[in-house]
Amino acid sequence: DGGITQSPKYLFRKEGQNVTLSCEQNLNHDAMYWYRQDPGQGLRLIYYSQIVNDFQKGDIAEGYSVSREKKESFPLTVTSAQKNPTAFYLCASSIGETTGELFFGEGSRLTVL
Amino acid sequence: RKEVEQDPGPFNVPEGATVAFNCTYSNSASQSFFWYRQDCRKEPKLLMSVYSSGNEDGRFTAQLNRASQYISLLIRDSKLSDSATYLCVVNRYNFNKFYFGSGTKLNVKP
Question: pLDDT grade, residue A97 (50/70/90)?
Fold first, then answer.
């Protein structure tokens, strides 16, 4: 079945450590996205990529980095520069056309100890 | 001003009730519109796309009013399983960025 796979599902990190969240899709979608969701809040865009080897900052990119070396993969690194990294991270993809909807992975829940 | 605004609720309704949510968007260049459902601690899932002519899927009806820049979702004959947060999402033309409302929480009671 086609879909988006995020890993790990749960992750604990000590302050000062970088951590990388994996996102893989087999939907052949061009566009991929990373969102952050805090309790009781909406989704905020961290980074997005519309094509391989290209990506743009979203609304809250500080303290995060991404790469898009393959169409299927869009990993997110949460760096030590991110002041409040504990959150629910959601990866999504879309076909890339303006009317295509977003498909989401199951999310990664990061807790900084 | 936020791109997309929703009443956070919660809307507490009995089973069988009809409930309606509205969502407003600020940018007239917005091109595509969606309602997503999100269960607690889960990922959002597409409930329905919203078309200019309005569309219906079973108990759910979505409407778009471009002149007033709002989208609505009507749920008829509410079920306990409809309890969730409903997210309004818009996509701006030629930009391929999706803007989310903060969600409206629905609690359907027995």
Answer: low
